Request: fold
Amino acid sequence: MEIYKIRRIRTLIVKIRIFVLVKLGKRLKTMNSENAFDVTVMHNLKGLYHCNDRVKLLIKPLTAIEKVNKNSKVLIIGPRNEHDLYLMASEGIKMSNITGLDLITYSSRIKIGDMHEMEFADDTFDVVVFGWTLSYSSQPEKAIQEIVRVTKSGGLVAVGVEYTNLSKEDSESLLGYSIQEHEKLQDRINSTKQIINLFGSNGGKVYFDHDAPLKRSHTSKEKIQNVSNVAAIVEVIK
Reply:
């Protein structure tokens, strides 16, 4: 819908719906995952009202690919709120064809569930948008394998993560806690090569490769506004 292209209106709709459905309707639901880091739900609840446009780094090139059209069935993993769904709809995808999945939900448009063990049937989606969620997983290979399962052969998976050179101690200094539990996962996914390698033999053509060219990272003392991001769009082959 064209109205979703207007950021002020888009974010207003998101925040009004959160207020009505969470504050008044008491619709908020959460679940935990044994394959996610312990602070995942807490950290994302803190940002429930945040409307970040960074997913455009995935959506813009994704919707420029000829395989993607208004009738494509799209799964958005980890949207936190409805904002990413509206951004996808603003590029011409039917809202009825867009499904969200998260450990947090207040909306019928976002199913509650674990990306490592999804309840969707095999080969359900033409497109999966996996933006800024992989970094919460202690089992990234398992998450990608599950995404491959629910994606049709020839479908597209768009993955984005925030680039960072913060240590565990730096993160604790900045946030008061570290999102990544290093005893569960030593190496953070921080490059397009790492993302693409997770697909193994199921990875086909790479349609988009944005390897954080400026390498801008938060510091232990401040969060910067224009932090770099890593993004790749990979074709699924089965």
Remarks:
- The helical segments are 7-24, 40-46, 56-64, 83-90, 140-150, 168-175, 192-198.
